[in-house]
């Protein structure tokens, strides 16, 4: 890799780290789903069995244990609490680290697939994407899932180039990390396994090695519950826990004012009236936090994507789909599979979700945009690609205050609400 590219990604990564660390201790209390994740990470740190019990009473008023998701991300957060102490900085630092690492991971994947120009544009897009920033600053698990998924795609592609067992094992390990963080890691396993098998089939290299992509993540999923079993739980209790998880994840009676599916707003639950607000259009974000600073100022944290990235992304995705139809490129197929697998299945969800469930698709959307920008940049309209990238960066900075809780005048929040549905 040219020295200039190395310097570029190092500087961009340092920039991403700085803005993620900026005021990371604010607010100095739980906000949004930290009421579940922080208390659970703390309980893991203290080896409290109640954190794994679906029927445990709330550890504090207004909180509850998060037993709905696999433990890995919360175990990482628990380690941070044990090392640094039980304070907001420690709760959120792991998300900062993994959210920052997502930038070079996206760059590497784009570079391997499409070269330096696509990689530069893709890295810039993900670095200047607001939803990614917000999810890198809160004690939740989505940013961990997203990083592990991108890494698994990196090593899966490397495996298809040289059939190195080491790369296959690394692919399987990152898939294991993904599924041990959140169940959508199963989507990554399905795509990566299918892609590797397709590549092997096309090259008449069929063997049993790719089965490691299923076996190792399965073992790692069970391994992520090591603390659970060391506390004396049985396999029957493990099965019972997963029955409770499955029941809850299939509930259709849940409601939330910012609840959505991949296509619709469903504030009163999926069995009630819906309105059109697909994630890809960035129509409905989520208010995470409101923090008062005196009588006139407040800090808002709003899980909203960079609208320019989302809206240009629709055009770019259509363009890249066209390129795939034209070229039948396996590289393009891999990126499109990565993009679509993390939101299309949610069209059929039995329960409400939120915009941030779209997060794992965003690195792939960044690469899709980078691909289109590369083609524009290498045409006579080079300035258009530069201009569009500049607009993305400006939009990111414009929405930065409501992505980070930076105090603003209460009356000024209206200027950020470009769409009526964002309120």
Description:
Helix 1 (3-21) runs parallel beside helix 5 (116-127), helix 8 (165-179) runs antiparallel to helix 9 and helix 13 packs across helix 15. The mean pLDDT is 96. It is globular and about 60 Å long. It starts with a helix and ends in a 14-residue tail after the last strand. The chain has helices spanning 3-21, 34-45, 72-84, 88-114, 116-127, 130-135, 142-162, 165-179, 185-202, 212-223, 226-230, 235-249, 307-327, 330-341, 362-377, 382-404, and strands at 264-265, 275-276, 286-293, 297-303, 408-409. By secondary structure, the protein is mainly α. The chain has one domain (3-422). It has 16 helices and five strands. A hairpin with a 3-residue loop joins strand 3 and strand 4.
Tell me the layout of helices and strands.
Layout: H1 3-21, H2 34-45, H3 72-84, H4 88-114, H5 116-127, H6 130-135, H7 142-162, H8 165-179, H9 185-202, H10 212-223, H11 226-230, H12 235-249, E1 264-265, E2 275-276, E3 286-293, E4 297-303, H13 307-327, H14 330-341, H15 362-377, H16 382-404, E5 408-409
Antiparallel strand pairs: 1-2, 3-4, 4-5
Helix pairs in contact: 1-4, 1-5, 2-3, 3-4, 4-5, 4-7, 4-15, 5-15, 7-8, 7-9, 8-9, 8-10, 9-14, 13-14, 13-15, 14-15, 15-16
């Amino acid at each position: 890799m040219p020295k200039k590219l190395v310097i570029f990604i190092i500087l961009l990564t340092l920039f991403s780290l700085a803005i993620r660390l900026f005021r990371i201790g604010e607010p100095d209390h739980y906000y949004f789903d930290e009421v579940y994740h922080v208390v659970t990470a703390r309980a893991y740190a203290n080896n409290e069995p109640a954190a794994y019990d679906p029927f445990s009473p709330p550890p504090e008023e207004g909180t509850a244990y998060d037993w709905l998701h696999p433990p890995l991300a919360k175990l990482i957060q628990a380690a941070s609490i044990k090392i640094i102490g039980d304070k907001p900085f420690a709760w959120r630092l792991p998300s900062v680290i993994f959210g920052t690492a997502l930038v070079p991971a996206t760059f590497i994947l784009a570079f391997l697939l499409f070269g330096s120009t696509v990689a530069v544009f893709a890295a810039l897009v993900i670095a200047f994407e607001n939803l990614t920033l917000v999810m890198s600053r809160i004690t939740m698990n989505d940013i961990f899932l997203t990083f592990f998924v991108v890494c698994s795609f990196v090593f899966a592609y490397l495996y298809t180039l040289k059939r190195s067992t080491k790369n296959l094992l690394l692919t399987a390990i990152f898939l294991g990390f993904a599924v041990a963080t959140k169940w959508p890691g199963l989507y990554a396993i399905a795509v990566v396994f299918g892609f590797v098998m397709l590549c092997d089939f096309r090259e008449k290299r069929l063997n049993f090695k790719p089965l490691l992509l299923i076996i190792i993540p399965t073992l790692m999923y069970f391994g992520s519950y090591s603390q659970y079993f060391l506390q004396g739980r049985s396999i029957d209790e493990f099965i019972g826990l997963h029955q409770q998880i499955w029941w809850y994840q299939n509930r259709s009676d849940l409601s939330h004012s910012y609840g959505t599916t991949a296509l619709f707003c469903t504030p009163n639950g999926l069995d009630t009236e819906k309105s059109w607000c697909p994630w890809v259009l960035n129509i409905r974000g989520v208010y995470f936090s409101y923090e008062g600073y005196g009588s006139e100022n407040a800090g808002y944290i709003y899980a909203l994507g960079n609208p320019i990235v989302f809206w240009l992304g629709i055009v770019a995705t259509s363009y890249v789909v066209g390129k795939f139809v034209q070229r039948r490129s396996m590289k393009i197929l891999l990126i499109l599979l990565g993009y679509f697998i993390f939101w299309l299945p949610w069209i059929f969800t039995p329960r409400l979700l939120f915009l941030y469930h779209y997060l794992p698709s965003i690195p792939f959307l960044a690469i899709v945009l980078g691909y289109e920008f590369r083609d524009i940049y290498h045409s006579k309209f080079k300035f258009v690609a530069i201009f569009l990238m500049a607009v993305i960066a400006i939009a990111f900075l414009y929405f930065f205050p409501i992505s980070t809780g930076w105090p603003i005048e209460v009356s000024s929040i209206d200027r950020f609400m470009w769409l009526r549905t964002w309120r």
